[in-house]
């Protein structure tokens, strides 16, 4: 069972890597990818744990059946749940299921109570997400891969290990994108000294 899950995890990481065009990182024969590992401020082990959390939580949430439509995203062991549940009880149960997954340190239960969102609504969220990411890339004073962006029902969720200045700057950028209703932050604020440690080293 464990080896099957491991193969599933690696396959999911491979798909994520291929769709983003970023090169994978090989660690002891295991591949970690989906973001640019050179600028991702999580350790390689944490990146793998986050992907594992998404897969395991998604599997557990399937027990809810057609009572809910839920998306799971994990950054630095914080599991973000978005989507819709038909009842408050189902919403709470989803949080319990995700919270019981190995390595989850905190659950952000942002599931709305109500019917599943429409296809047009989800398409609009994807458009907003692409705009926010593009704006972060265009910002010369930010490292875009330091931010994890999720959009649901026009709400933008920003996650990452960033300085106070970076957090405020990214929030300002996201709020200026058309269609954004609200920006919800879940940052791990790091010091300027820690930030300096992530700066690219000059070529020798």
Automatic annotation (TrEMBL):
Protein name according to UniProt: BON domain-containing protein
SMART domains: BON
Entries under InterPro entries matching the protein: BON_dom, Lipoprotein_DolP, Transpt-assoc_nodulatn_dom_bac
Keywords: Signal
PANTHER family the record matches: BON DOMAIN-CONTAINING PROTEIN, OUTER MEMBRANE LIPOPROTEIN DOLP
Stretches assigned to the BON domain: 44-115, 124-191
Organism listed in the record: Pelomonas dachongensis
Superkingdom assignment: Bacteria
């Amino acid at each position: 069972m464990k080896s099957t899950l491991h193969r599933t995890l690696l396959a999911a990481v491979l798909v994520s890597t291929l769709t983003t065009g970023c090169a994978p990182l090989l660690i002891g024969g295991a591949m970690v990818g989906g973001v640019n590992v050179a600028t991702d401020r999580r350790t390689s082990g944490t990146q793998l744990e986050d992907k594992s959390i998404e897969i395991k939580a998604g599997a557990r949430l399937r027990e809810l059946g057609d009572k809910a439509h839920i998306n799971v995203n994990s950054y630095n062991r914080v599991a973000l749940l978005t989507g819709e549940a038909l009842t408050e009880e189902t919403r709470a149960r989803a949080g319990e299921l995700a919270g019981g997954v190995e390595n989850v340190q905190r659950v952000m239960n942002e599931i709305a109570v109500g019917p599943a969102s429409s296809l047009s609504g989800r398409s609009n969220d994807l458009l907003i997400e692409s705009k926010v990411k593009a704006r972060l890339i265009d910002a010369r004073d930010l490292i875009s891969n330091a931010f994890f962006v999720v959009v649901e029902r026009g709400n933008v969720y920003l996650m990452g290990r960033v300085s106070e200045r970076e957090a405020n700057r990214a929030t300002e950028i996201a709020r200026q994108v058309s269609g954004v209703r609200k920006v919800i932050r879940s940052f791990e604020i790091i010091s300027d000294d820690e930030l300096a440690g992530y700066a690219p080293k000059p070529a020798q």
